[in-house]
C-alpha cells in the first residue's frame, strides 16, 4: 500500500538515485524501495474502451490510440482534437521523399471522480531519427473543463520554484553547470542565482535585512492564479517548451519530470530520463487540483481494475472532435443504402473516416445490417425522407408524417433517430423548415456523380472544390461514386483533412430545428 499521508520525506539526493540511478553508491540500505512514475495503461479501468487506428498511404503512415469512455467526454474530446491537430501538422509538412511515420498514444496519470489526468505522446520517425513529444492534460470534474499542465501548480511563483527544483537536480546529481542547463530550466536557475547574488551584495553593504530565506519572484509583475482556466492557459502558452509539460506523480508522493537524454549534457543511453521533485517540495507548489491529482494517482497505483468513475452527460454530447480548430470536411452519401454501401464502408474504414448517410426510409428494412454497421463504426445517419419525394410540394402535415415515419424506421434498427434531414433535390420552403424538428443539411460541393457516372471526374471535383468546413454530396447507390471515394480519401488525407460527421462539422450550437445549413466554412 502507498503511504498517502506522505509523512515520509524523500531527500533530493535519494530520490534522484531512485528514479535516475546514475550510479549512486552506498544508499541501498538507507533508501526506501525505488520510487516509480505513476502512469496507467488505458485498460487499467473497467468501462474504458480503447480506440486505435492506423492509416497507411503511399506518402506516410499515421496511427493513434486513445480512450473511448464517452465520445463527448471533455477530456476525450480534447485528446482526439489535439491528436488531429498534430496529424494535420505532420501531413502538411511531409518531405518530398520517404515514408515518415507519426504514432500518437495516450495513458492515464490519475483517475478519480474529481480529476482525470492524461498523457499524450507523439513520436515521429523518418528512418533517420525519432522525435518524441509529450503533453499532459487535466480534467476538473467540478467545472467539467480540461486544463493544461500549469493547473496543478498554485501560481506562477510556485511554477518558478518547481522549475528551480528540477534545475537543482540536474546541477547536483548530474553535475550540469548553470550555463548548460537546457531552456527554461537555465533561465529560471539564472534568475535565482542573479537574485541571490543581488541579495548577497546588498547584505555586504549592510542594506539587506532579509536573511537567508529567499523567494523566487515570478517573471511577471503579478503572479497569476493558475486555478483560473484562462490564466492557466495563458501561462502554459508562455512556458511552452518546459520539461514540466510532461510531468507525472511518483509513488513517493513527489513529481516526476521526463526529459530526453539529448536535453541533458553528458547523459547517455536512448531512454528518457525521469527527474524527481521530492514530496516535501511538491506540497509547497501544488494547487487544490494538484493535490487531488496526486491523491488519485497514489490511490490508482495501490488498486487494480477499478471502474472508471466519470459518466455523462457532458456539454458536448454528440461531438467527437472540435472542428472549429481543425481542417474538417463532411462526406455525405444520399439515396442509400444500396448494394455498394458495404464496399464504401470498407474504404472509409481504411482512413478511419466518419461520414453521414442520408438514407431512404423504405430501404431500411431491406438493409438493416448495413445501417447497424454504419452506426457501430461511428458514422451518422440522416433522414432523406421515406421514398425521395419532394418535400416542397407537401403540406406541413404531410412533411411531418414522412419525416416521422423515416425517423422511426431508423430508430428501430439503430436505437436513435437521425440527427439531421436532407431534403431530396435540395428542395424546401418555409413550410418544410417550419414543420420539422431537425436541422436541414444541404451541401457546398456537388460532385454531380449522379450525372457524370465517371469516377475520375467525381474524385477530381471533390478534391479541387473541398475546403475546410465543406459538405460534399455523393450517392452510395452509384458504383462509380463508390469507386471514386478511395482517391478522394487519399487526396484529402494527404492535405491534412479530417473526415467527420455533419454533427461534428457544425457543432451542436450551430444546428437548430428547421435551420438550413450548407457548409461550415469560416471565411
Automatic annotation (TrEMBL):
Residues 194-216 have a biased composition (Low complexity). Keywords: Hydrolase, Metal-binding. Residues 327-500 form the NodB homology domain. One of its GO terms (molecular function) is metal ion binding. GO terms for cellular component: membrane. One of its GO terms (biological process) is carbohydrate metabolic process. SUPFAM superfamilies: Glycoside hydrolase/deacetylase. It comes from the Bacteria. Residues 191-242 are annotated as: Disordered. PANTHER family: CHITIN DEACETYLASE 1-RELATED, GLYCOSYL TRANSFERASE-RELATED. This is NodB homology domain-containing protein. It comes from Nocardiopsis kunsanensis.
Amino acid at each position: 500500500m502507498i503511504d498517502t499521508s506522505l509523512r515520509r520525506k524523500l531527500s533530493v539526493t535519494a530520490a534522484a538515485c531512485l528514479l535516475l540511478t546514475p550510479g549512486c553508491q552506498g544508499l541501498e540500505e538507507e533508501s526506501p524501495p525505488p520510487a516509480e512514475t505513476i502512469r496507467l495503461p488505458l485498460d487499467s479501468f473497467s468501462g474504458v474502451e480503447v480506440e486505435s487506428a492506423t492509416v497507411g498511404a503511399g506518402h506516410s503512415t499515421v496511427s493513434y490510440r486513445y480512450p473511448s469512455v464517452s465520445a463527448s467526454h471533455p477530456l476525450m474530446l480534447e485528446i482526439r482534437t489535439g491528436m488531429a491537430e498534430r496529424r494535420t501538422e505532420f501531413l502538411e509538412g511531409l518531405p518530398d521523399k520517404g515514408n515518415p511515420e507519426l504514432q500518437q498514444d495516450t495513458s492515464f496519470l490519475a483517475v478519480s471522480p474529481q480529476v482525470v489526468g492524461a498523457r499524450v505522446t507523439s513520436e515521429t520517425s523518418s528512418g533517420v531519427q525519432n522525435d518524441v513529444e509529450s503533453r499532459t492534460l487535466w480534467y476538473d470534474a467540478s467545472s467539467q473543463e480540461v486544463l493544461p499542465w500549469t493547473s496543478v501548480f498554485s501560481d506562477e511563483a510556485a511554477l518558478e520554484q518547481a522549475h528551480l527544483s528540477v534545475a537543482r537536480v540536474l546541477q547536483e546529481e548530474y553535475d550540469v553547470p548553470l550555463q548548460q542547463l537546457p531552456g527554461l530550466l537555465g533561465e529560471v536557475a539564472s534568475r535565482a542565482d542573479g537574485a541571490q547574488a543581488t541579495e548577497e551584495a546588498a547584505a555586504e553593504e549592510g542594506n539587506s535585512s532579509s536573511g537567508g530565506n529567499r523567494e523566487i519572484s515570478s517573471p511577471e509583475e503579478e503572479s497569476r492564479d493558475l486555478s483560473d482556466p484562462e490564466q492557466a492557459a495563458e501561462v502554459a502558452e508562455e512556458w511552452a517548451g518546459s520539461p514540466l509539460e510532461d510531468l507525472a506523480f511518483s509513488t513517493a508522493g513527489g513529481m516526476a519530470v521526463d526529459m530526453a537524454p539529448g536535453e541533458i549534457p553528458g547523459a547517455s543511453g536512448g531512454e528518457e530520463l525521469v527527474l524527481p521533485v521530492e514530496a516535501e517540495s511538491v506540497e509547497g507548489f501544488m494547487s487544490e487540483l494538484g493535490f487531488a491529482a496526486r491523491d488519485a494517482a497514489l490511490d490508482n497505483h495501490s488498486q487494480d481494475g477499478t471502474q472508471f468513475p466519470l459518466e455523462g452527460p457532458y456539454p458536448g454530447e454528440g461531438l467527437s472532435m472540435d472542428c472549429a480548430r481543425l481542417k474538417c470536411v463532411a462526406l455525405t452519401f444520399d439515396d442509400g443504402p444500396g448494394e455498394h454501401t458495404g464496399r464504401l464502408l470498407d474504404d472509409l474504414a481504411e482512413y478511419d473516416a466518419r461520414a453521414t448517410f442520408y438514407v431512404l426510409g423504405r430501404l431500411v428494412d431491406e438493409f438493416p445490417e448495413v445501417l447497424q454497421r454504419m452506426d457501430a463504426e461511428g458514422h451518422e445517419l440522416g433522414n432523406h425522407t421515406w421514398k425521395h419525394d419532394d418535400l416542397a410540394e407537401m403540406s406541413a402535415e404531410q412533411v411531418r408524417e414522412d419525416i416521422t415515419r423515416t425517423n422511426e424506421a431508423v430508430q428501430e434498427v439503430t436505437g436513435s433517430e437521425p440527427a439531421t434531414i436532407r431534403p431530396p433535390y435540395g428542395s424546401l420552403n418555409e413550410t418544410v423548415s417550419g414543420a420539422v424538428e431537425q436541422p436541414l443539411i444541404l451541401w457546398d460541393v456537388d460532385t454531380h456523380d449522379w450525372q457524370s457516372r465517371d469516377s475520375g471526374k467525381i474524385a477530381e471535383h471533390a478534391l479541387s472544390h473541398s475546403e475546410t468546413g465543406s459538405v460534399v454530396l455523393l450517392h452510395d447507390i452509384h458504383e462509380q461514386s463508390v469507386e471514386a471515394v478511395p482517391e478522394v480519401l487519399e487526396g484529402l488525407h494527404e492535405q491534412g483533412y479530417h473526415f467527420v460527421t455533419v454533427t461534428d462539422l457544425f457543432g451542436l450550437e450551430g444546428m437548430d430545428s428547421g435551420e438550413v445549413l450548407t457548409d461550415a466554412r469560416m471565411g
